[in-house]
Amino acid sequence: MDLVAYCFLALSSLFVIVDPIATIPAFIAMTPRDSVASRLRMARLACLVVAGVLILFALSGQWIFRLLGITLPAFQIAGSVLLLRIALDMLYAKRSAAQETREETAAGATKDDIAITPLGVPMLAGPGAISTSLILMNQAQDWP
User: Fold this and answer.
1) Residue-wise pLDDT tens for the chain (144 aa)?
2) Which one of 7, 43, 73, 114 has the fewest CB atoms closer than 10 angstroms to its CB?
3) How far is Cα 106 from Cα 108, in angstroms, rounded to an integer?
4) In whole angstroms, what is the distance from residue 108 CA to residue 113 CA?
5) Can you tell me the distance from the alpha carbon of 1 to that of 118, in angstroms, rounded to the nearest whole number?
6) Is the pTM of this model over 0.85?
7) What's the CA gap between 4 and 44, in Å, rounded?
8) CB-based contacts of 64: which residues, under 8 Å, 6+ apart?
9) In three state form, how does the secondary structure of the chain look?
10) In 3D, which of 114, 113, 134, 132 has the Cα closest to residue 123?
11) Rounded-to-integer distance, Cα 17 and Cα 128, Å
């Protein structure tokens, strides 16, 4: 697979799994009294947190698994099952419980700053996104 095809596969896969568009209503519901500047700051910080978490797991995921005694094929199977479950929920037009729950949205509405939790992790960088980043990193041929 050439670099352009791999980048398209990786970006489209992560965009669908992270699903930032579906997080917008929850973000608005959690920040009804915040100013526009505060909302922008939280959204930017959440984006940085998501990127940091996914890059961290993509780069050090195999080391973490070795430390915990988890093999990569076992994780790939578990991650694939999780991604299949999310895909089936999307097929039936249901919001996956792996993304967010009503309790998380309600708890986020009472917090002063929701950028790191619950917005960054687990709503955007949830188990599906982490699994996808690890699987994509394992499929990469070389660093570019």
Assistant:
1) 788 999 999 999 999 999 999 999 999 999 988 999 999 999 999 999 999 999 999 999 889 889 999 888 888 898 889 888 888 888 887 765 555 677 777 777 777 788 998 899 989 998 889 989 988 998 887 776
2) 73
3) 5
4) 8
5) 36
6) no
7) 27
8) 57
9) CCHHHHHHHHHHHHHHHHCHHHHHHHHHHHCCCCCHHHHHHHHHHHHHHHHHHHHHHHHHHHHHHHHHCCCHHHHHHHHHHHHHHHHHHHHCCCCCCCCCCHHHHHHHHHCCCCHHHHHHHHHHCCHHHHHHHHHHHHHCCCCC
10) 114
11) 6
What backbone phi and psi angles, to 5 degrees, belong to 141?
A: -80, -40
Residue 68 is encoded by which pair of tokens?
Answer: 């915990």
As given in the structure block, the two tokens for residue 120 are 């960054």
The first and second tokens of residue 73, run together, are 């094929």
Structure tokens at 133: 């980043």
